[in-house]
Q: What sequence folds into this?
C-alpha cells in the first residue's frame, strides 16, 4: 500500500499479513475516491473519523494532504499497534487520535461531530446495513459533511434518505452520503 498524494506521496507501508483481519482498500479505489473528495472538501479544515480503520490507510492519506484532526477507530490490537508505529515513523502522532473500540460502541457513545466520516467495515459484517442509519441517528456528521462507506456489490444504499452518490471500482463500492 502507498500514500497517493501530499506530504508523504509515494511512501509505502507494509502491514503484517499473518492473521491480519483487514481488507485494505486498493490503491486504485482509494485514488478514485480521493480524486472525488479533493474536488469537494478542503482537507486542511476537516475533522475526520476513520471507522474500522484497519491499516490506517485512509487516515494517513488525509494527514498527508493537510488534515490535522483524524480519529482512527478499530478494535483489533494488531491494527492499533501497526497504526501507532506508522504514525510515529511518519511523525504524525499529533494529528491522529488512535482509539481501540468496537465501532458500534464508539458510535453509540460519541459526542463529537465530524466533517468527513469513512467506514470500511468487513464486507461480511452482518450489521453493515445499519451503519448509515447509526451515523445519522447519532448526528455524528457536521452540516454539509460527507459520510463514505466502502462495501461490496451485495449491499445497496441508493434508497437511503441521505444517499448522495455511488462510485464503483470493481468489487469495491463507495456509497457517499450527505
A:
Amino acid at each position: 500500500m502507498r500514500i497517493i498524494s501530499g506530504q508523504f506521496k509515494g511512501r509505502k507501508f507494509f502491514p503484517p499479513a499473518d492473521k491480519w483481519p483487514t481488507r485494505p482498500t486498493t490503491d486504485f479505489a482509494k485514488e478514485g475516491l480521493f480524486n472525488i473528495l479533493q474536488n469537494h472538501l478542503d482537507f486542511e479544515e476537516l475533522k475526520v473519523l476513520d471507522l474500522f480503520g484497519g491499516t490506517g490507510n485512509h487516515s494517513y492519506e488525509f494527514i498527508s494532504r493537510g488534515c490535522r484532526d483524524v480519529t482512527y477507530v478499530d478494535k483489533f490490537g494488531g491494527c492499533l499497534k501497526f497504526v501507532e508505529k506508522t504514525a510515529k515513523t511518519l511523525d504524525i502522532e499529533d494529528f491522529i487520535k488512535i482509539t481501540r473500540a468496537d465501532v458500534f460502541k464508539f458510535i453509540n457513545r460519541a459526542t463529537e461531530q465530524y466533517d468527513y466520516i469513512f467506514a470500511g467495515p468487513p464486507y461480511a459484517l452482518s450489521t453493515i446495513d445499519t451503519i448509515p442509519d447509526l451515523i445519522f441517528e447519532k448526528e455524528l456528521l457536521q452540516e454539509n459533511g460527507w459520510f463514505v462507506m466502502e462495501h461490496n456489490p451485495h449491499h445497496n444504499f441508493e434508497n437511503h434518505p441521505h444517499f448522495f452518490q455511488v462510485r464503483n471500482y470493481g468489487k469495491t463500492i463507495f456509497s457517499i452520503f450527505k
User: Anything to note?
Assistant: The mean pLDDT is 94. The longest strand covers residues 141-151.
